[in-house]
Amino acid sequence: MERLWDEGQAAYAVEEFVHERAALLAGPGEALLVALPRPVHARQILIAILRPPGITRSEGRAAAPRDIAVPAVAARAAAAIRRRLLPRYVDALVALRGPALLHAYTATQHALDRWNDAVDLLFDDDGRLLNRRALDEQRARRDADAWSALETVLAHGPGAIHQAHTDLAGLGLPAATASGLSHSLWILAGAISEGTHARDTWDKILAPLANAPRDPEQEARFAAGLLLRHAAGWPAMETFASHYPALTAIESIKQTLTAGNPRSTAAGARRNAAPSTGTGTGTGRRTGPASLASQEPPRHRS
Question: Is there a contact between 101 and 53 (Cβ–Cβ < 8 Å)?
């Protein structure tokens, strides 16, 4: 109920009726759709989309793709979803992914700042650790905060990187600048690939624990698994945060050129450049676009 993006027909149906049947469907990209019988209409199904990570109810309400009622016939239902619902979903994602990614980046930087401050306090002047337990607690907090941001990045990052490649191809930037930005986009795509691998791997490990009868031992195992999952996601999110300024730099240049010469920018934006994939490493430093060309190529983490 809380994850339903639109607060319309499906929300009403979930709240007011008991449903013996419902289904969770995988849509394009990270989209998740809910299908359930439409009350009082035996031959129709309600289709709703779950709100993506990083978009709050208040932020997403105005842009929410409205639930639709479709015939209870698979082929006709699929056609209606493609025609009536998914285009609205894509439009909503485009409108909201910029603020969502900015929030994820800011949250990660805050987590990193808190971690650095904690490390300064937990080591003496000779580099000796003063409190191992406190250090582990601070690391776990950092990783958990970054995992929440990573979920947002996995939902919105691929589309943003793809659009940035498309825009970059039409901006006509000097070769060195374009190469540096393109390299950062490649590292960003690698961070998303690494984060997706961590999420999918740990989902498989944690699912049996989450669905098993709860007892103190199972609770402890599940909590330990969450800590390890969050730790596995930290390198990917750190890398993404290190190179995120490339996305904002491309968008800023695009807006500047659009204001000065909208025709040439519009023509460039029509070119299509698919995002690269690779695996990147992050330094934890706040990296601006001016220094991106000098970044080392990414290395695969085993």
Answer: no
Count the Cβ atoms, other than its own, within 10 Å of residue 30: 18
Q: Could you give the C-alpha distances from 137 to 65, 147, 227, 280, 282, in angstroms and in order?
A: 40, 15, 10, 26, 22
Six-digit token string for 2: 């809380």
Dump strand ranges (E) for the chain: 23-26, 32-37, 44-49, 68-71
Decide: 36 and 44 in contact? Cβ < 8 Å: no
pLDDT exceeds cutoff 90 at 63 = no
pLDDT (tens digit per residue) in 131-179? 999 999 999 999 999 999 999 999 999 999 999 999 999 999 999 999 9
Given a contact cutoff of 8 angstroms between Cβ atoms, the answer to whether 236 and 147 are in contact is no
In whole angstroms, what is the distance from residue 12 CA to residue 33 CA? Answer: 16
| Residue pair 80/68 in contact by the 8 Å Cβ criterion | yes
DSSP one-letter code for 43: T
- The structure tokens listed for 218 are 């199972």
Of the chain, the end-to-end C-alpha distance in Å amounts to 39
CB neighbour list of residue 55: distance below 8 Å, 6 or more residues apart = 5, 96, 100
Asked whether 229 and 147 are in contact (CB, 8 A), the reply is yes
Residues 156/97, Cβ–Cβ less than 8 Å: yes
Provide the whole-model pTM: 0.77
Distance CA 85, CA 25 (A): 13
The whole-chain average pLDDT of the chain stands at 82
Mean pLDDT within 65-74:
88
Contacts of 208 (CB under 8 A, 6+ apart): none
